[in-house]
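# nightly structure sweep
# worker-07 picked up a monomer target from the shared queue
# config: single-sequence mode, recycle default, output format = structure tokens
# input follows
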Amino acid sequence: MSTGSVEVVYRGIFQKTLAKNICRGIVFAAKNEGKIGIAFGRYSDSPERNGIPAKQFAVVADTEEEMEEHLSRYEPDNNDVTIAADDTLCKGVECWAWYGLQPINKLLKEGGTLLIPSTRSVNHLIGEIHRKGMPYNLAIVKGTASFSGLWVYKDDHTDVRLLGALAKVAPHIVSLDSILATIDDRLKATSAKKAYDLVESVSVGANQGNDEVPFEFEMPGWTEMEEGLVIRGIAGQQEVPGRDGGYVPTRNPTFKKFSTRTMRPVVNFDTCTQCKICWLQCPDSCFDITPDGFYDANMEACCGCGVCEAVCPVSQCITMVNEEAFTDNDSQWELWIEDKESYSGWLSEKISEPPARSHGFHHVGQYAEEIANEPS
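# output follows
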């Protein structure tokens, strides 16, 4: 007898339907094999917020006793499979309940499989994923991230393709025949079968991957708690080492927001008119005023909402670019000040052929346009 569990990490709101359909599909497929299963959500804000990493789980067992034993744990930290519904989640995920940046493979058991829809190479993804400290497998279903949404479901077969791939990488949880038996559409069943046949899986060593130590912080113990609710006052402005002048607001040191982002703004300082609109309109106050009067988006505070691009009056002064094009959160203004010619080349590279990205909330009517442009 055995119990298998699958963790689905997704972008809050934008991929909720997708995550729900994957977990429900696992449970229905398990039922076809005479097993018992349950799907549930956990670790997200309530209500979920745009782009905030959230999770759903599916647990499958042979008996009710096994199921109860597995669910009695506070946190399922031995998942057979983790599905990252968006490959930008490979950089790590953060939510208010997780006490820092959580590696995407953190809750995956030794020898388990991280399953991702992506058009990027295995080596590229491994370079972003934090080291596990134990071996696991990385499986890729070729395809872009799907933003199926909470209110609008864009049915592009991502859910059935991931279910088909799951049957290949973890057949002890559900078989392909069981998956296909839950799909009542012939075209979708074909998609699941193709994903089963084409999914690529490689072994990742214990010491492979991003060697960055994810930031974390400690919650106060019961001996440190004070009477009543205490909110410490903080200064409105912070001092930044090496920076003389400008204005940098003090920010929450424990909630950095960047794991929410699927796209980031890239600023052309040479065409910036210093009009202040991006600084005024940013909902998260992530623009710092530089000593020379420009506006530098703090990449640890930016959630990638795209408001700055929308309100900027200068064409391509601010351009939203796919997060996969970046490997750090360095200051763009500092790069520009250091070497303006090199920055100009870097900027042209980022905005001239940006990786395609539909982050699900760019403008009204976007879904209808995408469907109209899809090949029949």
